[in-house]
Each structure stands twice: as structure tokens, then as C-alpha cells.
Amino acid sequence: MQHYQDKGWQESMRVRIDFNNMMKSHVGQYGLEEAELRAYEGRFARAAENMISKRGDMKWRELPHNQNEIVDRILETAQYVRANFDTFVVLGIGGSALGPTAVQQALSHLRYNDLPKEKRNGPKLYVEDNVDPERMASLLDVIDIEHTCFNVITKSGSTSETMSQLLLITHLLREKCGDQWTEHLIATTDVQKGNLIKIAKQNGLRTFYVPDGVGGRFSELCPVGLIAAAVCGIDIKQLLAGAAYMDEITQEKDVWKNPAYMLAALEVVAMEKGCNISVLMPYADSLKYIADWYAQLWAESLGKNVDLDGHTVHVGQTPVKSLGVTDQHSQVQLYTEGPFDKVITLLGVDAYRTQMTIPHAFDDIPDVAFLSGRTFNELIQAERFATEYALTKSGHMNKTIVLPEVNAFTIGELLYMFEVQTAFAGELLNINTFNQPGVEEGKNATYALLGKAGYDEKKKELDAAKPKCECYIL
Ligand code: PA5
Predict the structure, then answer these.
(1) Residues forming the active site
(2) Per-residue pLDDT reduced to its tens digit, 139-195
(3) pTM of the model
(4) Ligand 1 pocket: which residues have CB below 6 Å?
(5) pLDDT tens digits, residue range 59-95?
(6) Count of other CB atoms within 10 angstroms of residue 330
(7) What residues have CB less than 8 Å from 3, skipping those under 6 apart?
(8) What is the position in ligand 1's atom list of the atom closest to the CA of 217?
(9) Ligand 1 pocket test: which of 60, 154, 189, 447 has the largest number of ligand atoms within 8 Å of its C-beta?
(10) Which residues contact 19 (CB under 8 A, 6 or more apart)?
(11) Nearest residue (CA) to ligand 1, atom 5
């Protein structure tokens, strides 16, 4: 038995939430009253029922449970990559990139790529989620194509950004590696739809599937995220075990006992009172990109113009990513003294993986000496508590999520909790959480602008757009 299968250990690693400072009793007039939350009970209950009746459609919910075989294949492939390549590059965007970045930052060394090879736990990892020509060129300056394996990830198999990266890399691989080029590519895509699956089959690429019913931003716990993690030596079985544990916890129907439902309820109730901004502020560099991943999950899932009954609603909170303590010196002034239009979520860690003492050096200067003998651990914790205190004192709603420590299990819990939170918020808002028509519009316009077949009508629509007025261009 693995240590993470032990019930006692799991309980000790349980992610906790504390929402005292969302309440009027603690934060004052701009907080929520318990009666206000109780007034939502009917909506909470309906949303909880929907989460049960729609579970069959939310295929991402089963990922912690139904991937034994695929995990074995991923581990085999990871072994192949680790044995044969110096560098692993993910080509993807949105849900196909943010998860791999977040998990790598959380669970690998914080300066992983800078470590010497013998100290790294696998090949260097780059996640390329933009088509900025300067960034593409700079990647080619730092990697050696002949020793690099590329994982091209696109569920639709047609996203322009990812497909253009694939074209570039295929061209370079053919040039440098000849017939061996296919050994350098792994495709992760839909089993049937799109162009990548055609390319993968035609060329015999190693291929993994994004399971049906698992959308991009809910796909970190399938091959989309697990391959890169396994290549870098992250324990993906433990990651999935953490998610499974959170699945158990979040099957509770009562909002008052279900942390994911309560987090969603607090955001939605606050949003309906005018808090249109949701800030996630991790107090750990390892969790920095969890805030990026959450921003996409929250924005793309909940930013919708119509509800499921066809009413125009234009709902959604704007997610803001922040980093403690860094952004205490950048954004916290606004959070403590600015408008009451935000919910601020601090993401803390009880035990950091390193303990570091602040040494003595200038004991004759009391204003500096008070730090000596303390630890950076104490300092960052004190600063989190101080920010919580300042926000609360100034009457700004805030809550805290705490990870006992950052490990594969707690990261699995956290990702799964945020996914359930988002799905539950979508049910409360009665919207389609899982589509992204606004993203599709931009994708289609790009196709039309670049002359893709079948987009003539869209091109005409774009050509007919109102011309810009010179007078508004300075
Ligand atoms: O969450 C989503 O569905 C999107 O953000 C997609 O991940 C993103 O648009 C990339 O799509 P694809 O994986 O089809 O290339």
C-alpha cells in the first residue's frame, strides 16, 4: 500500500477552507449574512440535485477513477521520453497548456529547467502556449531539436495556434531527424474529431486521447496533463488519488458540508450583490500558476451571455491572479482601500517543503535585527495573516483555502475541488459551464482571416465590419 492510500494520512492532507471573513459578523457591512445564504437554500438544493443527475455527462468527474490502464501507458511513454530525450515541449493552448504548467510549477523544483541534468528529475520542460514569433524563435535557440520530444495537445485537433506550431516543428524534425521524426512527436487529441488524429494515424504517432466529454479546462487529470507530469517524474497516481479523495468529499449534497459547493455559493452570492471580481492569491510560488489555471476555469466556464432557458444574462466574475507576498506591494492597496467589488481568496500552505532561517548580520540595527533568527516560513505566514487581517479590518470579503503541504495528493485535491466548485457555480447560475462560444468566435474569425476553406461567409462578415474612424486613432 502506498502512503497516500492510508486514510489517516489522507485526512491529515485534507484541503481546508475558512470563510469567516466572508460574513458580516467578521467583515462588517459589506459581508454576507447567514440568512442571505440560507435564502439561497432552494437554489443550492436544485444545483446539488443537478450535480448528481448530470454527473454522467461530466466525464471529467470520473478521471480519478477510470484511468488505470491509461496511466500505465503514460508511465511507459514517460519512461521512453526520459530515456531518450533532454527536453520535452508541450505545444498547446488554453486548457491544453495551463494545467501542465500549473502542476509542473507546483510539484517540480521551482527552478527545474535551470538545474543541472543530474539534479533534475527528467528532461527540461517547456509549455508553449503562444504564437508570438519571437517566443517561438527563442525556444528554437534554447532547445536541440534532435534531443527533444514534443507533445502536441489539441482536443479539437484544429486550433490554429497549436496546428501552426505543429507545422513548424514537423518541418524542423523532418529536416534534422529524417525518417525518425515521428519518434519525436506525441499527439494528444480527440479519438475521432479533428485533423490531429488524422495526422497521428497517417504517420503512426504515439497517440493519447482526451476522453469524450472532458473539455479543455477540465482536462488536466487526463493525458493532457498527466503525460508532462509523468515525464518530469511527478507521481501521477498520487495526483489522481488526491482528486479521488476530493471526489468523495464533494459528493456531499449539503452546501454547508461541501467545501467546493460552499466556495461556489459564496462567490455566486457575492457576485449577485455586485462583487464581479474573484481574486485568487496563493502564498507560495509553487502555486502561482494554479491561479492562472483557475482564472481560465472560472472565466471561460462562467462568462456566458445566455442561461439554459435562453434568457440573456451576461454573467460571470472576472478572475484576477495575484501572488502573495509579491502582490502585497502591487495590488493589496487596491484590495484594502478600493471598491467593495471583489472576493479575495488567499491560498495558503501550512508546511512549506523547505525551512529557511534568516541569519544574523546587523544586530546593532534593531529595525533590521528583529528579522534575524526568524524563518522565511514564519515571515510568509505572518504576511498572509497580516493581509487577511488588513482585508478584514477594511471590510473587504476574503476567505482562505489551506493546503497542509504542497504535494501530488493535495494538488489533486485542489484541482478537483476547483473543478467541482466551477461546475456547481454554473448550476447555480443555470448556464452551460462547459461550452465556450466566445472562444469559438475568435477561432473562426482567425480561420476566415487566414483564408481557411469553408469560412468565406465569416470573411465577408469581417470585411463588412464598420471601418475604424481615423479621429479615434492618435
Ligand atoms: O477549455 C477549453 O475548452 C479551451 O480553453 C481549449 O482548451 C482551448 O481553446 C484549446 O482548444 P484545443 O484543445 O481544442 O486546441
Answers:
(1) 300, 329, 443
(2) 999 999 999 999 999 999 989 999 999 999 999 999 999 999 999 999 999 999 999
(3) 0.97
(4) 93-96, 154-156, 159, 162, 215-217, 300, 436, 439
(5) 999 999 999 999 999 999 999 999 999 999 999 999 9
(6) 10
(7) 9
(8) 1
(9) 154
(10) 262, 263, 266, 399
(11) 94
* Amino acid residing at 269: V
Ligand 1 pocket test target in 60, 90, 93 with most atoms within 8 Å of CB: 93
Q: Which atom of ligand 1 is nearest to the CA of 443?
A: 9
Interval between CA 300 and ligand 1 midpoint (Å): 10
| Span from the CA of 439 to the centroid of ligand 1 (angstroms) | 9
CA 150/CA 130 separation, integer angstroms = 15
Percent with pLDDT over 70 in the chain: 100
| Percent of the residues in the chain that have a pLDDT greater than 90, as a whole number | 97
Atom of ligand 1 nearest to the CA of 215: 3
Residue 439's pLDDT is 87
- DSSP class per residue in 40-105: THHHHHHHHHHHHHTTTT-GGGGTTTS-HHHHHHHHHHHHHHHHH-SEEEEE--GGGTHHHHHHHH
- Domains of the chain (ranges plus CATH)? 3-57+239-429 (3.40.50.10490), 61-237 (3.40.50.10490)
pLDDT digits (tens, 9 = 90+) for 436-467: 998 888 888 988 999 999 999 999 999 999 99
